[in-house]
Amino acid sequence: MYSWGAQAAIMVYDVTNTDTFAGDKNWVKELPKQASPNMVLALTGNKADLASKRALEFQEAQAYADNNSWLFMETSAKAAMNVNEIFMVIAEKLPKNRPQNAAGAPDRNQDMGPPGEPAGQPQPVLQQWSPPCVPLPLPSPP
Predict the structure, then answer these.
(1) Using CB atoms within 10 A of its CB, is residue 13 exposed (0-12), middle (13-18) or buried (19+)?
(2) pLDDT tens per residue, range 38-59
(3) I need a labelling partner for 99 at 20 to 30 A (CA). Which of 5, 41, 68, 106 fits?
């Protein structure tokens, strides 16, 4: 696991497999050792489209997330359900100031300017993000 300097983490478990939920519980014990104190954490149950195979109830995972003050959402990568939404919710919770490292100091990488420009120049902070638009080709007439 590498999370040094990360500002957010998503712990994903499979709603059809309780072992993955238990694995997330172990994984989060490592985060405080490397993580920023203000890291945004989200617990995400994937494969929510497989309701008939569900092994972990929504309420159990929600309670666990609530008890730890984490964001929580169920998703389905296959059905594209809540995948963009979890990232948007996390982005809204990220600090609007310069990121800090685990020791609370400004992140060294934030002072690096674009190639060819001197380091140490203030870099703009992303205030609002919107997904890129990619034009799709129009179908050819019959």
Answers:
(1) buried
(2) 889 899 999 999 999 999 999 9
(3) 68
Q: Which helix (H) or strand (E) holds 73?
A: strand 71-74
Q: What is the pLDDT of residues 75-113, one digit of tens each?
A: 999 999 999 999 999 999 987 765 555 555 555 544 444
111: number of Cβ within 10 Å: 13
Q: Residue ranges of the domains in the chain? A: 9-95
Give the three-class secondary structure for 9.
Answer: strand
Topology of the domain covering 9-95: Rossmann fold (3.40.50)
CA pair distance 88, 44, nearest whole angstrom = 13
pLDDT digits (tens, 9 = 90+) for 57-77: 999 999 999 998 899 999 999
pTM over 0.85: no
Quick one: tokens of 17? 């497999």
The distance in angstroms from the start CA to the end CA of the chain is 53
Q: Do 5 and 37 form a contact (C-beta atoms < 8 A)? A: no
Mean of pLDDT over the chain: 75
- CA gap 7, 93 in Å, rounded: 10
Tokens of 100: 């800090």
